[in-house]
Amino acid sequence: MPLRRWEGPVEVVRTENQRTKALKELENEPLLGFDTETRPVFKKGRKPNPPSLLQLATADRVFLFQISLLPMSNGLLDLLAEDSIIKTGVAVRDDICGLQKLSDFTPGGFIDLSDISAQSGMQTHGLRNMAANLLGFRISKSAQCSNWAKDNLAKAQVTYAATDAWVSRELYLAMKELELL
């Protein structure tokens, strides 16, 4: 299968002005691909780190919020709580729990694709396998264990993070077309 990645525009959000502009674009979107990235812990017995990056994908743009640099406030929590905007991803419960450790909010409009795949009797429930099975392509996981708390993300990290959010949105659309939703 071919290897694919997000090739459209990516906005890395690290300032108040960038966040305000991004939220203005996102507030009218009916469907967003959703994911978070967390700096991994390599020492046994250490608590997991909080999420450093929050990814939201529209049909034509991906926003990467560097929440390790810019707190989740001024509308971002409202977006995550908004029931009318579908936010779709894989294992979203874990992502939401991590985000709630940073800021208290009541999640709204989240759909976990791994739950849908399990209910549908699919053998695999991970993003990578679902992309292969439903979308017909592979995605790279090479940047998964990198330092997401860095001030300046590497190009490979930006591409990886944007691809995960984009694929989550595409999987939702594919499942909807297959009438699994």
Kindly describe this structure:
With 181 residues, the chain is α/β, with parallel strands linked by helices. The protein has one domain (10-177): Nucleotidyltransferase, domain 5 (2-Layer Sandwich). 37% of the residues lie in helices and 17% in strands. The protein has six helices and six strands, in the order E-H-E-E-E-H-E-H-E-H-H-H. The chain has helices at residues 16-26, 76-81, 92-102, 113-119, 127-135, 155-177, and strands at 10-13, 31-38, 51-57, 62-65, 86-89, 110-112. Strands 1-4-3-2-5-6 form a six-stranded mixed sheet. Helix 5 packs across helix 6.
Topology readout:
Elements lengths: L9 E4 L2 H11 L4 E8 L12 E7 L4 E4 L10 H6 L4 E4 L2 H11 L7 E3 H7 L7 H9 L19 H23 L4
Brief digest:
With 181 residues, this protein is an alpha/beta fold.
CATH homologous superfamily assignment: Ribonuclease H-like superfamily/Ribonuclease H
Beta-strand content estimate: 15-25%
- Stated plainly, the CATH topology is called Nucleotidyltransferase, domain 5
- Determine the number of helices (DSSP H or I, runs of at least 4 residues): 6
Main sheet summary: 6 strands, mixed
What is the spatial order of strands in the main beta sheet? Answer: 1-4-3-2-5-6
| CATH class term | Alpha Beta
How many domains make up the 3D coordinates?
1
DSSP E strands, number: 6
Q: Write down the overall mean pLDDT.
A: 90
Question: What is the H/E order?
Answer: EHEEEHEHEHHH
List key phrases describing it.
single chain; 181 residues; alpha/beta; Nucleotidyltransferase, domain 5; six-stranded mixed beta sheet; 6 strands; globular
